[in-house]
Amino acid sequence: MSDEPLAIVRVDHGEVGGFFVKNAEGADPENLAEVTYYWRGRIMVITHTIVREQLAGKGVSKRLYAAAVEAARAEGFKIVPQCPVALRTFNKESGWDDVRHRY
Length: 103
What we know:
Elements: E1 8-12, E2 16-21, E3 33-40, E4 43-51, H1 60-75, E5 78-81, H2 84-92
Parallel strand pairs: 4-5
Antiparallel strand pairs: 1-2, 2-3, 3-4
């Protein structure tokens, strides 16, 4: 799975949003994985990560964070990884320091 393409969808409702991996079959309305956030000005605060069992351990959360990093670079905002899983991943990825907001 880690090398297979995932359909990552971003949904932003203005104040909150997320990056999602949807169920391809459409039979299950729940997301297979998600990273949710809220906006504080031009800062995306990542608050929550969920990866369902069938995708666990396959690098999916990192790929969702990478989608957030790509969006930050393209749109010019910064990211605060508040979720403990996101924080651990961002701490390991020095290549993402350019979009990480530091207090």
